[in-house]
Amino acid sequence: MQGELIAIVGASGSGKSTLLNILAGLDRPSAGGVWVGQRDLLNITEQSLVQYRRHIGFVFQSFGLMPLLSAQENVELPLHIIGVSWRERRRRAQEALASVGLGPRARHRPYELSGGEQQRVSIARALVTGPEVVFADEPTGELDTTTARSIIDILRRISAEGTTVIVATHDLSLAAAADRQLEMSDGLLKEP
After folding, report:
1. DSSP of 44-77, one letter per residue?
2. pLDDT of residue 45
3. β-strands 188-190, 180-185: how paired?
4. What residues contact 188, with CB distance under 8 A and at least 6 apart?
5. Where does the chain have alpha helices with state H?
6. CB count, 10 Å around CB of 105?
7. Where are the transmembrane segments (predicted)?
8. In whole angstroms, what is the distance from residue 182 CA to residue 19 CA?
9. 191 touches 157 (CB < 8 A)
10. What is residue 145's DSSP assignment?
11. What is the pLDDT averaged over residues 184-189?
């Protein structure tokens, strides 16, 4: 599983986004249990959950960028929250933005960026902490075909570099680019 690009496919409302939110520790299930590796996310302490979240990145469907912050400041935000020094935050954010091809756009605010550029900022923010796993909720859903292809290429590169990427998508080209596909139907996950 390490370094894989895994696509969870299914119709709208099938539970893909909910599953990602639960796996990322952002939501709790209404029933059952959730184990990620050796961690029981349902019975985990808040402090342990915070530690768990430090090892994951999340790309939100709506980008989730702070509108008054520059691209660089948006990418620095998770590092600021965990107490990384200003100089180190700046360096790592610049590297993350460069890795998604946005180094020259670092000072721009979200409203000055295209949808594809905003999504790349969101991906850079998810990567800046060096996560083991990146969860991406419909990362190509709001993008044109050409821009979506560039996002798919970035996600493939991230997984090739050893980070597991799990995407929820109904984009067939993204699903086809994945190493493995899982199908979500009526809240059940299965291999097709």
Report:
1. --HHHHHHHHTTEEEE-TT----TTS-HHHHHHH
2. 87
3. antiparallel
4. none
5. 16-23, 46-53, 71-81, 86-99, 115-127, 145-160, 172-177
6. 18
7. none
8. 12
9. no
10. H
11. 84
